[in-house]
Amino acid sequence: MTSTQRLFIGGEWVEPGGGHYEVIDPASETVVGLAPEASRAQVHDAAAAARGAFDAWSRTSPEERAAVLDRAADIMQRDFAANADLAQAESGATSGTARGMQVAVGVARFRRYAKGALEPVEQGLPPQINEAGPMGKAGVLGALAVRQPVGVVTCITSYNNPWANPAGKVAPALAMGNTVVVKPAPQDPLSVYRMAAALEEAGAPAGVVNVVSGTAVEVGEAAVDSPDVDMVSFTGSTAVGQRIGEVCGRGMKRQLMELGGKGAALVFDDLDEAGLASAVSGIGTTYAFYSGQICTAPTRVLAQRGIYDRLVSKLSDYIGYMKVGDPRERGTVVGPVISAAHRDRVESYVELGRKEGARVVAGGERPAFEKGFYVAPTLLADCTNDMRVVREEIFGPVVVVVPFDDEEEGIALANDSDYGLIDYVWSGDVARAFRVARRLRAGGVGVNTVGRNMEAPFGGFKQSGVGRDVGSYALHAYSELQSIVWQA
């Protein structure tokens, strides 16, 4: 699979100014391919190319934009097996995740926003009757609210899903008539170049889509500070998001930020056995999906004391059923994390939890593999809300459990966090579950489920983000509202 990739700028495949770097398979530590290291000037060239293509692309008909997105989805689907193999090799995802949660979701998002390009962008407002005055003679004023494309959008994507995450940015941005510069995560950028190649083959005009990658901080900085960029859409850590926000603020650039999460899962003691099993299974997805490298995971479990011991025991048993190992092998549930550095970071948090007084119920030791960046699924119990392992995003297969006494305490503990992306409530009393959900300071709340409705708005409160996307909300996110007023 090893290949040498070039940048994609202005419809041309360009040799990188900074040479190439190795993309490493997290499972085998072998080289997947050589990714291009863009120079700062090349990133600005990409933004300039997007600026040059914007006027024509923004004036194409919705039907033309929809056709390009649909054809791109067809091409991604045509090459599905190869795309899934590459995604797995770059990210270390299990076969099921690479196929079903990465490439398949990426294709589905292009299909969704091909339809989205055809959604109405004009909304008629009630007419207003004005009496004669300084602003003119009496009359009836009509008005339209019209959504217009923002312009050039920089899309900075995360490493945990090299297909679904960029597709969720690129497809709605293009559907609305924007042009894009994509800066993929340095750990797994090759899939994004595949996406760009599909768009090129599908007939996207030169400059509409540009992809620049690199390991240097300067590459991302250039993608944000270019004067040709009107908006930045970023998925990643809160710390990086804050730095991007400072630059955007100076240039009055639009922002869409999906940042960190430390999802609270409130588990009440009114659950029956089936409800408890549902909670255990839902929380267990933290270990399974992307090896815990997912900001929406219920990593911070708040268990009412009447159910605390049973829940901890069942979560420990659940880990025992999860095969850790080569993501290509049948039956593997938990693959590697993205890099050696990240493995060390996750392990340091487990050790910190021990020092803080948490009880390691399961996991806590590095799996015995000769190669690969593996972390054992780990359960930390008897935690308190002031522990760093409870307050900070670990981004690995680690779950912490904190006990609480009553509903009010549970809500207070859940809200005592810098984050607010997605929280969860498990209760046998549906009225209670919805009552509690409404009081949680989070952009989303799952009630007795970790499932997502892919038309519901997605985004965070507090340090978990700015703005909302998914479904039609993504089309709104990548547009500006314009008012057109006339006198009838």
Short note summarizing the structure:
This protein has helices spanning 40-58, 62-78, 80-91, 95-116, 164-175, 190-201, 217-225, 238-251, 273-288, 305-320, 340-356, 388-391, 407-415, 430-439, 472-477, and strands at residues 7-9, 12-14, 20-24, 31-36, 122-130, 139-149, 152-156, 179-183, 209-211, 231-235, 254-258, 264-267, 300-304, 323-324, 332-334, 359-362, 378-381, 398-404, 422-426, 444-447, 465-466, 479-487. By secondary structure, the chain is of the alpha/beta class. The chain has two domains: 7-259 and 464-487, Aldehyde Dehydrogenase, Chain A, domain 1; 264-454, Aldehyde Dehydrogenase, Chain A, domain 2 (3-Layer(aba) Sandwich).
Account of the 3D structure:
The chain has 488 residues and is an alpha/beta fold. It folds into 2 domains: 277 residues, Aldehyde Dehydrogenase, Chain A, domain 1, CATH 3.40.605; 191 residues, Aldehyde Dehydrogenase, Chain A, domain 2 (3-Layer(aba) Sandwich). It is built from 15 helices and 22 strands. The strands form 6 sheets. The chain has a 7-stranded mixed beta sheet, sandwiched between helices. It has a 6-stranded mixed beta sheet with strand order 9-8-7-10-11-21, sandwiched between helices. Strands 5-6-22 form a 3-stranded antiparallel beta sheet. Helix 2 runs antiparallel to helix 4, helix 2 crosses helix 6 and helix 4 runs parallel beside helix 5. The protein is globular and about 70 Å long. The protein starts with 6 loop residues before the first strand and ends with a strand. The relative contact order is 0.14. The mean pLDDT is 97. Keywords: Oxidoreductase. Belongs to the aldehyde dehydrogenase family. InterPro entries: Ald_DH/histidinol_DH, Ald_DH_C, Ald_DH_CS_CYS, Ald_DH_N, Aldehyde_DH_dom.
